[in-house]
Amino acid sequence: MDIESATQKIRRFFRKNKRLPSYQEMCRLFGFASKHASFKLAAKLIEAGILGKDDKGRLIPDRLLPSLPVLGIIRAGSPTAADEQILSSVSFDDYLVAKPEKSYLLRVSGDSMIEAGIQEGDVVIVEKDREPKEGDIVVASIDGEFTLKYFRKRDNLVFLAPGNSKYSPLFPAENLTLFGIVISVVRKYH
Amino acid sequence: MDIESATQKIRRFFRKNKRLPSYQEMCRLFGFASKHASFKLAAKLIEAGILGKDDKGRLIPDRLLPSLPVLGIIRAGSPTAADEQILSSVSFDDYLVAKPEKSYLLRVSGDSMIEAGIQEGDVVIVEKDREPKEGDIVVASIDGEFTLKYFRKRDNLVFLAPGNSKYSPLFPAENLTLFGIVISVVRKYH
DNA sequence: CATTATAGTGAACGATCGTTCACCTGTCAA
DNA sequence: TTGACAGGTGAACGATCGTTCACTATAATG
């Protein structure tokens, strides 16, 4: 049983059960008859940095989580491994949603932010209770209308600007309520 | 100890340790002196659908995972809970990356796909070993140049089209190698 | 051939696991 | 005042946990 296929099997187990297998379960997973075989294999995985250990000796995932390789574009040539490893080990959940208790998702309808690269059908992650800065994309209700727009502030004048030259900026006549600022955008093609 | 604050503490533990606490650890977490108190509290959380149980009696997360509310835009009015719950319980990892073993990440440079809503600095998730269909966005090497473009096929003529009217379509003179098709896009603002 | 290393078996240990049971409070309604 | 009940304590159980040790089988090396 080589390390790579073992990693793959453990990863599959972890994705399915949301936890790591015990040594006993690894035996079923790998076809071992003895727990000690799993124990030694796990030691190798720890050595390889794929698994880790708790303060109290329990197995914990380390580089087991979907660590997609991050490639960089070199102008001419094939894609090569990028030096930055920011995304490689972190889950998208942690990467995209900093404060899950203050966030919600919104499926975008309309084309008012299309020049900002936000299309119909995209999902935006919105964080509440945060002071918007000039240029942020915000979810707002302006005079009863509910929209996704740029937050603009010019000489103490606050208004909402669309990311689409077909539309005009919105100046609040009566009421402007902010429901949060957009911290990330997600799009899925297939 | 009410259910909500217990859920919050367990969620915090799970995010930190990538696993659920044992009843003993819950005692430290909740300030209990007896495991049985944790046991009964966990029973309530299971009743509430927040936790679940394994085939073998182990605790597993159910609705504990970061379940961001998905809101929908009603034309006039405040955002309300959307009927679709696709995203609510699924992690972004599972949502965005269908086949992690065949995927990689690419940080986008350049503006050649800006009209497709893909900007400089965005991260695209690319899946390898997949036959591109007309209109797919692909990562390709054309005559030694490495790019992100639309895959076009017209009357058996294959070429690459940019998502930016400033640029022209690229017709392969010698060589066209595909490195995968873009299945999702991720952008982070803050 | 002998030797060393690698991989797996199998038994055993103390610790921790989930679970059950009996008991001890308070609080609130009858 | 009484009884029921919910919430927490504490001890106990068998099962499983991680870990250790001694042993076997196979392959590679000299």
Automatic annotation (TrEMBL), chains A, B:
Residues 69-183 form the Peptidase S24/S26A/S26B/S26C domain. One of its GO terms (molecular function) is DNA binding. One of its GO terms (biological process) is DNA repair. Pfam families: Peptidase_S24. InterPro entries: LexA, LexA-like, LexA/Signal_pep-like_sf, LexA_repressor, Peptidase_S24_LexA, Peptidase_S24_S26A/B/C, WH-like_DNA-bd_sf. The keyword Protease does not apply. SUPFAM superfamilies: LexA/Signal peptidase. Keywords: Autocatalytic cleavage, DNA damage, DNA repair, DNA replication, DNA-binding, Hydrolase, Repressor, SOS response, Transcription, Transcription regulation. Belongs to the peptidase S24 family. NCBIfam families: lexA. This is Polymerase V subunit, DNA polymerase V protein. It comes from Candidatus Gottesmanbacteria bacterium GW2011_GWA2_43_14. The lineage of its organism: Bacteria, Candidatus Gottesmaniibacteriota.
